[in-house]
Automatic annotation (TrEMBL):
Domain of life assignment: Bacteria
Molecular function terms, GO-annotated: DNA binding; DNA-directed DNA polymerase activity
Gene Ontology biological-process entries: DNA replication; positive regulation of DNA-templated DNA replication initiation
Pfam family, one: DNA_pol3_chi
SUPFAM superfamilies cross-referenced by the UniProt entry: DNA polymerase III chi subunit
Stated name of the protein: DNA polymerase III, chi subunit
Length: 143
C-alpha cells in the first residue's frame, strides 16, 4: 500500500480534479471517500465542471453503472469497491485500505486541516505504513 500526502495545495478541489484526471489517463480505477452525502454531491458537480479536457466519468456507489464507471464517489467506505486508488476527501483516517493499491490525501495550507492531516499521517504510520509527502508549492516552483 502506497500512501501519498500532497500538501501545500492552493486549491484542493482543483488538485483533486488534476490527480483524478492523471489517474484516468493511466487507465486506473478510482474511489473517492467523502465526509457526507452532501460532500459527495458537491464532488459530483465538481467533476462535471472543472475538468479542462472533458468529462470525468463518475457516479455514486449505488448507481447501477458503478461497476463500469472508473470513478466512484461515496461517503460510506463499505460501499466503495476495490480500486487502484482511494482519494480520502475526509478529515479522518481511511479504513479498508487492503482494497486499494494506493491512498492519496490532499492537504491545503489551512493550519487546522494540516494538523488533522498530521494526525492521519501518524495513524497510518502506527498501522505500519510509510506515507510519502509531496510539497505541491515546491513542485510548482521547480516546474
Amino acid at each position: 500500500m502506497q500512501i501519498t500526502f500532497y500538501f501545500n495545495v492552493k486549491n484542493r478541489e482543483q488538485a483533486l480534479c488534476q490527480l483524478v484526471g492523471k489517474a484516468l489517463a493511466q487507465g486506473l480505477e478510482i474511489a473517492i471517500l467523502t465526509e457526507s452525502a452532501a460532500a459527495s454531491t458537491v464532488l459530483d458537480r465538481l467533476l462535471w465542471e472543472i475538468p479542462q479536457h472533458g468529462f470525468m466519468p463518475h457516479c455514486g456507489a449505488d448507481d447501477p453503472r458503478a461497476a463500469q464507471t472508473p470513478v466512484i464517489i461515496d461517503h460510506r467506505p463499505e460501499k466503495l469497491p476495490a480500486r487502484s486508488i482511494l482519494f480520502n476527501w475526509t478529515d479522518r483516517v481511511a479504513g479498508g485500505l487492503e482494497r486499494y493499491e494506493r491512498l492519496i490525501e490532499i492537504v491545503d495550507t489551512d493550519e487546522e486541516l494540516r494538523a488533522a492531516a498530521r494526525e492521519r499521517w501518524r495513524a497510518y504510520q502506527a498501522q505500519g505504513h510509510e506515507p510519502r509527502a509531496i510539497d505541491m508549492q515546491e513542485l510548482a516552483r521547480n516546474g
